[in-house]
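pls design
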């Protein structure tokens, strides 16, 4: 069967974020700021710009109340104060968040093993059986052209797809951090996907990153019995099990992909956003130049 085009996106932030401790013992990694917005809001806005109509957030039990507050708290006290001071323009960013389309917030199924596939498996009951969906890791941001839009466009081209993975070239020595892609650049058919290979064993320097178009068939393989490397449930390994169908594709996306998953790269992503978007960018450039 061919599946309907995606209307839902599953965004995951269900890990411990140990590289950011101690701040992430209180604040989920996806809520760390980029400018005046949390990382996860940039991801949601990318989805909405591509036509996604519903967001499903899979988070930790500790993070659930924080996310619910951010996306649902009307902040009436702040609104009243700002309006009384004639500063209602400052509240516009809050109203934008409150006017987002439907956002459903769930926690990861505790019965599932550790691994990046488990948060996606946890959303199974919210996915329509005849419709594809977008899956995203919250610590990957894309500046410029929406990678979600790239995947949606690829789905129009490959309407038989069981999965489409977003990918980009990375430096050869860094491929060990990602799932390496082996595909036909002409047909975009995926031949192989290996999680965190040694650079000398990687089929290419094309890395799969946190942008996927999936179909409900992925849930057949995202089950506890299918744990792999390090006894974790890997999304890449589940996708690899669909490859024999000949209906799994890889799409090189066009936007600038930056990870925020560790302090160094988070700082770079923050800096890139600041220099491209903030009115004080010139001051930051001057500071960097002189220091």
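designed seq:
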């Amino acid at each position: 069967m061919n599946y309907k085009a995606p209307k839902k996106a599953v965004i995951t932030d269900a890990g411990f974020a140990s590289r950011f401790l101690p701040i992430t013992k209180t604040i989920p990694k996806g809520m760390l700021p980029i400018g005046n917005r949390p990382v996860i809001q940039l991801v949601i806005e990318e989805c909405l710009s591509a036509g996604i109509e519903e967001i499903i957030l899979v988070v930790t039990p500790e993070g659930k109340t924080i996310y619910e507050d951010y996306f649902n708290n009307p902040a009436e006290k702040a609104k009243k104060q700002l309006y009384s001071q004639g500063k209602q323009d400052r509240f516009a960013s809050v109203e934008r968040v409150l006017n987002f389309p439907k956002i459903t917030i769930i926690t990861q199924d505790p019965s599932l093993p550790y691994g990046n596939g488990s948060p996606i498996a946890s959303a199974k009951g919210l996915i329509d059986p005849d419709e594809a969906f977008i899956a995203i890791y919250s610590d990957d941001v894309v500046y410029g052209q929406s990678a979600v839009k790239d995947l949606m466009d690829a789905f129009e081209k490959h309407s038989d797809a069981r999965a489409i993975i977003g990918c980009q070239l990375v430096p050869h020595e860094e491929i060990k951090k990602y799932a390496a892609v082996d595909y036909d650049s002409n047909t975009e058919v995926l031949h192989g996907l290996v999680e965190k290979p040694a650079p000398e064993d990687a089929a290419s320097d094309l890395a799969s990153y946190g942008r996927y178009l999936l179909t409900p068939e992925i849930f057949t393989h995202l089950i506890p019995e299918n744990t792999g490397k390090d006894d974790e449930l890997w999304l890449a390994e589940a996708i690899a099990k669909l490859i024999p169908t000949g209906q799994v594709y890889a799409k090189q996306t066009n936007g600038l992909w930056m990870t925020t998953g560790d302090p160094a790269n988070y700082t770079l992503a923050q800096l890139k956003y600041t220099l491209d978007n903030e009115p004080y960018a010139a001051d930051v450039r001057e500071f960097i130049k002189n220091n």
